[in-house]
Each structure stands twice: as C-alpha cells, then as structure tokens.
C-alpha cells in the first residue's frame, strides 16, 4: 500500500546544506593550516638553537610524529561526530515518520483516516485535472456493525472492522488508497482509474467479502452486508466534496424502491450470512 510522504529521507539525512558544507570545509582547512603553523613555530623555537646537532633531528622526528598523531586524532573525532550526527538524524527521521503515520492512520484498522483521505483526494484530483487522467473513488458501507456491537459486544465489532480493513488492504492495488471514513464507512481512492476500472475493483471486493472469513472464531461470524458506491473524475464530478457525496448517494440509492431514482450503474451489494462461503452478491437493478 502506498505510503505517501512529502519529504525525502535523503534530504533529512544530509549533514548540511551545500552552502553550510562549503563553509564547514573552509573552516576545517583554516584550522588545519593554523595547527600546522603552530607546530612549525614550535619546532623553529625549539630546534633553531640545535642547528648542526643531533638534537635537531630528534626534535624534528618528535614534532612530525606529534603532528601526524594530532591530525589523525582530529580526523577520527570528526568521523565519529559525523556518524553520531547521522544516527541522531536517522532516529529523528524515524520518529517523524512514526508521528506522520500516526497522524494519518486510523487507530483501529490502520487504514488511512478521513482527514488524510480528503487531503490525498484533493491532491489526486489536481493531478488528474492537470494531466487529464481519470480518477475514481469508491465508498463502502458495512452493515450492520451497530447490531454486531449490541449482539456480540464491541470487541467483536472491532475485530470485524479490523478484519475488513485488512481485506481492503489485501484486495486493493498498491497504488490505491483505502481509508476508514467513519465508524462503518470506508473509502478507496483509485488514481488513474476509469469508471470501468472502479467497477472491476468493486467486483473483486465483492468476491473477497463473500468468500473470505472475517472472524477467526467461526461461531462469531456475523451476518454482514457491504454496499458500494462510486464516483470520479471526469465522469462523476470535479470537486472532492461532490465526488464523495455522489459515491455515498449511490449507496443510499440502493435502499430506495426500484421505481425511484437509482445509481447510474448496477453496483454489487454483497450480503453474507454466518458460515456462507459461496459468492452470491445482491445487485441493485437500475
């Protein structure tokens, strides 16, 4: 599943910007030159009086060894400092990514939440309009979750929602964005997907719901009904609110009498009873 992010880990792991890096290199070279100058002055002060004597050679060797050790130690310390800074930045990056994930995920199902769904739908709609590509949105309503909560308890209702969320993640494509909108309502954004493509995904979801056990304990498998609605760009509407409302209105239209206005396309509506593993979706006829 897509894990959107507006920042690059490579950027977060940079030690510094290009201008800071140039300034840092200049400072390091100045310190190296100053250090070499101090050693040279020290050598001259101590060794000039020993010109022509063996002590001059000994002092020179000692100063060279000291200089080599000083520069090697400084390089090692700087390398350790850079590694430690990168570790700190990596931990900060991981922490920020965790916070980002928490802020855009539904706590129960781990799907994307409503806020992120609308933010992402707006970005995808802008992309679709800019590049003249299709965009689809599927609304899903799972029933009767409230009845499950009152009959089996809220723990079983939560298990049902978690299992359904996992089914959405397993059935949708890697480029799709499944989300939990409210208690028993879900939505899926399908970038670069036509109306026919959205209907194909609905059919695949219907088959998965009809054949996949949602509860580990078969005795707790409740009777559920999943209703679907879809909309998109350019065949549906050109605003995110209108797209979502149109998809939700198709769900609502599935409960109206056949002689009233229904959805523009036959939308599968799967009904599953406890112990049922055969594929018998109910289809609203327009």
UniProtKB/TrEMBL annotation:
Q: Which residues form the GGDEF domain?
A: 133-267
Chain spans, region Disordered = 251-286
Molecular function in Gene Ontology: diguanylate cyclase activity
The record ties this protein, via Pfam families, to: GGDEF
- Could you tell me the keywords of this UniProt record? Membrane, Transmembrane, Transmembrane helix
PANTHER family listed in its UniProt record? DIGUANYLATE CYCLASE DGCM-RELATED (PTHR45138:SF9), REGULATORY COMPONENTS OF SENSORY TRANSDUCTION SYSTEM (PTHR45138)
**UniProt protein name:** GGDEF domain-containing protein
Organism from which the protein derives = marine sediment metagenome
Task: Tell me the lineage of the source organism.
Answer: unclassified sequences, metagenomes, ecological metagenomes
